[in-house]
Amino acid sequence: MLRLSIVHTLAYPTVQPGEPGYLDSIRKLANDDFFSVLEIVWLKDSDLRKTVRQIVESAHATMTYGAQSALLSQKLDLSSADTSNRQRAVDQMRSCIDEAAELEAERMSLLSGFYRGEQYREESMRLLTDSLNQICTYGEEKHMPITLEAFDREVEKKCLIGPAEDAVALSRAVRRNHPDFGIMYDMAHGPLLNETAKHGLTLLKPYLVHIHLGNCVKSDPTHPAFGDRHPRFGLKGGEHDVDELVRFIKILFDIGYIRQKPKKGRLPIVGFEVKPMPDEDPDTVIAGSKRVWREAWARVEPN
Q1: In terms of DSSP H, where are the helices of the chain?
Q2: What are the structural domain ranges in the chain?
Q3: What pTM did the predictor assign?
Q4: Tens-digit pLDDT profile for residues 224-281
Q5: Which CATH architecture best describes the domain 3-299?
């Protein structure tokens, strides 16, 4: 009914591309048949991309490519009123599309620009739509569909997209010319947006192409995992554990994202974005995530 994925850079946050252990961590996930898709982020080295592609291909797995870090680390904004900044952001996304195509990734994901305030929202939406039309056009030339991930608006990333209603409006505008464009909904971002999973997923149903599973800490600003830090399921002070995942999976069935009789073609992706705390072992946190999934999946009774 689905394929499970995992965000590599969150699972192994202390291992950066080119550093000792990076390829070992890629191989470890590729060798784990629990995961059918590896989510790889900004990978600038061509030789390293070639090696990663070979590892994933030999494991009979696939990849997606996340360009969010390329935007965030350079403070680039796809909805910026500063023309030069917005152009740099679009150019960087074209470069990331080239890298994603070299990896033979299924899709490339990105995030919107920053939320500048309600008085600028309409202008920012227009500028973001224009940027995405340019990026999607280039993506189509490279056979690389584009996914936009919705983030929080007020807590940490402070992104324009954002609330489900705005993600829907954006998707309608972009899909007029680019029907393969889609939205990634992250379970961990819902509480930070003050929106329930049922509300967000139901509104976004026609546009969903990728789902992330994870936890967040919302109620305690002094907690080390406060905000968009994606701690493990069941963390004390966090919002999500097995019960919440059961309800979330049930909604995915209810809206038809997961189907008992899937459509032809690739199965939908449901991915883990879980990051160990500084004193936690990555492999242990991954094992815990798999236990949470198995228990939640066993308790789901779809209609």
Answers
A1: 8-11, 22-30, 46-58, 68-72, 83-103, 121-141, 164-175, 197-204, 242-254, 282-299
A2: 3-299
A3: 0.96
A4: 999 999 999 999 999 999 999 999 999 999 999 998 776 667 899 999 999 999 999 9
A5: Alpha-Beta Barrel (3.20)
